[in-house]
């Protein structure tokens, strides 16, 4: 089990690798600052806003539903 914050960081890392994209490019595409992405990836943010997740999904040219469609976000895999 992992936290929602950890799942979010893992999903971003997974998609960055899959799409051969840098964090900088994701920041530019999404409108989320590079420092915010860095904080998410290093899990120094306690609560990530849904609006930030929506922007990140858009940065990957995905809907938020597509972004969250991962076993990482299955309830049985999260400690909430």
Report low-confidence residues grouped into runs of 5 or more: none
What is the structural class?
A: mainly alpha
What value does the Rg take, in angstroms? 12 Å
N-end to C-end Cα span: 9 Å
How many β-strands, per DSSP?
0
Order of helices and strands: HHHHH
Task: Give a brief description.
The protein is an all-alpha fold. It has helices at residues 4-18, 23-30, 34-41, 50-59, 64-68.
Description of the molecule:
It is built from 5 helices and no strands. With 80 residues, the chain is an all-alpha fold. The protein has a single domain, classed as Orthogonal Bundle (434 Repressor (Amino-terminal Domain)). It is globular and about 35 Å long.
Output the keywords:
5 helices; mainly alpha; 80 residues; 57% helix; 434 Repressor (Amino-terminal Domain); globular
């Amino acid at each position: 089990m992992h936290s929602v914050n950890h799942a979010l960081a893992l999903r971003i890392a997974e998609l960055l690798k899959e799409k051969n994209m840098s964090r900088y490019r994701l920041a530019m595409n999404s409108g989320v600052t590079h420092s915010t992405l860095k904080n998410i990836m290093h899990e120094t943010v306690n609560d990530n806003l849904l609006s930030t997740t929506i922007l990140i999904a858009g940065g990957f040219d995905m809907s938020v539903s597509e972004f969250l469609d991962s076993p990482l976000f299955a309830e049985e895999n999260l400690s909430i």
